Amino acid sequence: MEIKNKSITSRDVDFAQWYTDVCKKADLMDYYTTKGFIVYRPYGYAIWENIKEYVDKEFKATGHENVYMPLVIPESLFNKEKEHIEGFAPETLIATIGGANELQDRLIIRPTSECVFTEHYSHIINSYRDLPKKYNQWCSVVRWEKTTRPFLRGSEFLWQEGHTMHSSEVEAKEETLKMLEIYDQLGKDILAIPFVKGRKTEKEKFAGALETYTVEALMHDGKALQSGTTHYFGQGFAKAFNVQYLDKDGKIKNPYQTSFGISTRLIGALIMVHGDDNGLVLPPFVAPIQVVIIPIQMAKEGVLKKCREVFELLKNAGIRVKLDDGDKTPGWKFSEYEVKGVPLRIEIGPRDLTNNVATIVKRYDGSKETISLDKMVEEVKRLLVSIHEEMYQKALKNLLANIKEVHSYDELKEVVNKGGYAKMMWCGDEACENKIKEDTNATSRCLPFDQTAFDDTCPVCGKKAKYVIYFAKSY
Amino acid sequence: MEIKNKSITSRDVDFAQWYTDVCKKADLMDYYTTKGFIVYRPYGYAIWENIKEYVDKEFKATGHENVYMPLVIPESLFNKEKEHIEGFAPETLIATIGGANELQDRLIIRPTSECVFTEHYSHIINSYRDLPKKYNQWCSVVRWEKTTRPFLRGSEFLWQEGHTMHSSEVEAKEETLKMLEIYDQLGKDILAIPFVKGRKTEKEKFAGALETYTVEALMHDGKALQSGTTHYFGQGFAKAFNVQYLDKDGKIKNPYQTSFGISTRLIGALIMVHGDDNGLVLPPFVAPIQVVIIPIQMAKEGVLKKCREVFELLKNAGIRVKLDDGDKTPGWKFSEYEVKGVPLRIEIGPRDLTNNVATIVKRYDGSKETISLDKMVEEVKRLLVSIHEEMYQKALKNLLANIKEVHSYDELKEVVNKGGYAKMMWCGDEACENKIKEDTNATSRCLPFDQTAFDDTCPVCGKKAKYVIYFAKSY
Fold first, then answer.
1. Interface contact flag, B94 A96, Cβ < 8 Å
2. How confident is the model over B342-351, as a mean pLDDT?
3. Which of A158, A218, B114, B432 could form a cystine bridge with B460, CB 3.0-4.6 A?
4. DSSP letter string over B201-268?
């Protein structure tokens, strides 16, 4: 961009402060009186609505049904699955008073709803005919976090949680991979974010799950961000909650379970993958405003009229367009929509009217084009597609450049300290994960699906290597 | 319908039991371990999604923006508006433990979010340029109720809450009436429910509001159901929360506030306005499944193939259609979709193939038509529109037949005890409202917008009458 926005800290000076500045200056959120809780302002919430719309459609197309489950989980219910409760107990918010009376069974404000879905499934699954059951809900969850940052880690965040039940292990495991595929596709299609995909280690998997799969994004500062997870539970919850059905063969069986979720964390990913020193840079298909029209010398005859014509034209073509005819200067407006990361800015002034053109500026790289007003709709559509593609390719290039094979422990330390993924051969022993975390603060991100070995030994302990694994520092 | 569904109590035998039976048998909801909380099952939730889609579009078209606000309200914040807290305090759920520690400032799980929105507005409203602010959120709220019934009164329910700030009293009051108009139109356009509209009395208005407006529906048993409300707050909250802006004239002012909401109660209204002894009867434009196709003698050649063709045809025409090719008998399926209130059932059997026709049955009145397969899409579309219109007219006729002008206290008692609205001239004294409630359990529903007087005195106290008012028993 032409001029550095001075209200935003430079990324390279202080990345954390830059992040906070962008969250605030782009009007994505506001702080609240209770620490860790935030207000999702219209511009931030609209990004989430676009993500939701994409994912909801994919879920419905693959036979998932939306439901809404109770917000509260009685402690007695939560305690039924031991590993699960142990994972969540330290960070729960607990209600103890209802209608001015002390509650007998204290109520946990849902941190996740495995217990609630499984309890309901125990009422409605009776026959093989009732399977599979594939439910999803859009809601908020509460986790009492000590250190919080907008979108990345909050005491309350918005998410979807899918919970499914299947008649076979194979089908349930397939479900976890299919849902991971939807998350990956979400990245490709609208977030312009490429992910590293794979399975979590025993140490890093979800509380109560047998297997956890993840999509991980790489932020500008070289840290990873877990962006979506899917879990295979086997029959653990089903047995604990007594979910049983009569199979075709006349036998009583327990079904196999999965869950999966993405959250408003993805807004944090969008900020840190694409943003620059002038603020947010949004990929076109997730942007609440795709095009902003700014009149130049608005008082001159015909300018505002032409701006309104172009606005109507684009709006009717299904483009999310805004005309800013407010009383601020064009320069003020340029900066405003730059901070907000609006992909395209159209400037129309008196000289453009004479030539029947408009100037169009891409937020992504600051480049300008002069476009005939007669071809506005096609050109804007073309640009939205090409910007998305360029942003995805740029992010992919950055991701690939920051995955480095390491062959020694020193190399590993160097890579994770500098930022990016260290791709390592691992013995499979949790002790090595723990040592790396202690020494570098990096954690294992996943065992990628491509397990082509490139070394014989684990560089941490020197024992025989079994897995390809990614380590990185993370949010 | 042909045969009475025996799993559902007759409406005239036990209306309350009939209601519960329909909620359960139509798979709208399930009970939960914590009393008063329910599971919104896919079929029930899909009705809410359709309502939401309609209303959300209307809100956006009138310049409202969606946000998401924190779930918790610190007691210190809630206590800032005295009348408001007094109205809600007895039914709050309060969290006292977070992350295993006792909370200093206890957290109320939101029963409504006036405080939360106003607190946020105090951060973002500074200039006349920032007004109006018209925000809305879709969420759940918690009210610790003693007596609960699915959809009608629950400890947690889904709703939308709009909260707006305006620079003038006139504009704010207009907003409350415009939003009431959207609710009224929702009834006309997709719920097929006519409402009585008007203003609530001082006694019945919302805690902290200066004026409350309401749309009220009439249930089959003659009771009223408050179905949507809009509130004008004046500057009360704005002053308590210190929301101030610099106006064009250089003076510091407080804005004028409104809020408005509808909830999953509307599902209860749909059940009790349209349902019959065989279950739910859904108006077409809110129905999750508008048409169900049931193959007759499914094993016979060509039957299933033709059913699938018709399914694709209707689906591609944008109709919400389901083909039930499951292994149950046609009779079982008829009953299943009757209970669920699916507006149209299409039966296709071997004989129909020969004649290139299908039998189409309307859930609403049980009438049948034979329709050419070539004209299926037009005919289904025509029927959906005409069923909606007939259902609305039937409900309107019932409503009008059950509004009775009363001229004496005995007449009033007779009308409200029998069921329906007693339209009365009222002195305006709360003592008369209280007396009516004590004697009959009926409450004032609203002062209708048409205030054409028809008597000189209030039949309760004999004093000079000032207002036209409706009384009825209600949910």
1. yes
2. 97
3. B432
4. PTTTS-TT-SEEEEEEEE-TTS-EEEEEEEEEEETHHHHHTT--EE-TTS-EE--EEEEEEEETHHHH
Interface of A with B in 118-147 (CB under 8 A): 119-120, 123-124, 129, 135, 139-140, 142, 144-146
If DSSP codes are grouped into helix, strand and coil, which group holds residue A42?
Answer: helix
Please indicate if any CB of chain B lies within 8 Å of the CB of A153: no
One-letter amino acid for residue B471 of the chain: F
Answer yes or no: are the C-beta atoms of A349 and A300 closer than 8 Å. Answer: yes
Q: What is the pLDDT of residue A3?
A: 64
Residue A384 contacts by C-beta under 8 Å, 6 or more apart in sequence? A284, A285, A290, A319, A343, A344
How far out from the chain centre does Cα A51 lie? 9
Q: Please, what sign has the CA dihedral across residues A40, A41, A42, A43?
A: negative
Per the document, the length of chain A is 475
Distance to chain B for A111, nearest Cα, Å: 12
CA distance A248 to A255: 13
CB B67 within 8 A of CB B198: no
Q: Which residues pair with B322 in a beta bridge?
A: B292
Contact at 8 Å (CB) between B455 and B465? yes
Q: At A421, is the secondary structure helix, strand, or coil?
A: strand
Residue B431, exposed/middle/buried by CB under 10 A (0-12, 13-18, 19+)? Answer: exposed
Helices (H), A402-443: 409-418, 430-440
Look up the pTM and report it.
0.97
* Alpha-carbon torsion (B362, B367, B373, B375), positive or negative: negative
3-class DSSP state for residue A348?
Answer: strand
Residue B358 to residue A214: CA distance in whole angstroms = 49
Give me A326's structure tokens: 């407010």
Residues B110-138: tens digit of each pLDDT: 999 999 999 999 999 999 999 999 999 99
How many residues make up chain B in this entry?
Answer: 475
Separation of alpha carbons B356 and B309, rounded Å:
13
Task: Please report how the helices B430-440 and B409-418 are oriented relative to each other, as an axis angle in degrees rounded to 10.
Answer: 50
Q: Which two tokens stand for residue A318?
A: 């299904």
A window 203-242, beta carbon within 8 A of B: none
According to DSSP, the residues that pair with A135 across neighbouring strands are: A65, A163
- pLDDT per position as a tens digit, B226-280: 999 999 999 999 999 999 999 999 999 999 999 999 999 999 999 999 999 999 9
Q: Using CA of residue A435, residue A439, residue A440, residue A441, what is the dihedral sign?
A: positive
> How far apart, in whole angstroms, are the C-alpha atoms of residue A458 and residue A421?
16
Distance CA A21, CA A29 (A): 11
Residue B259: CB atoms within 10 A of its CB come to 28
Which residue on chain A is closest to B157 by alpha carbon? A70
Helix (H) or strand (E) holding B78: helix B75-78
Bridge-partner residues for B469, per DSSP? B424
ipTM over 0.90: yes
CB atoms within 10 A of CB A224: 26
User: Which sign does the torsion angle of CA A454, A455, A458, A460 carry?
Assistant: negative
Neighbouring-strand partners of residue A162: A136, A260
Residues B172 and B255: their CA atoms lie apart, in Å, by 9
Over the stretch B17-59, which tens digit does the pLDDT of each residue have? 999 999 999 999 999 999 999 999 999 999 999 999 999 999 9
Is A366 within 8 Å of chain B by CB? no
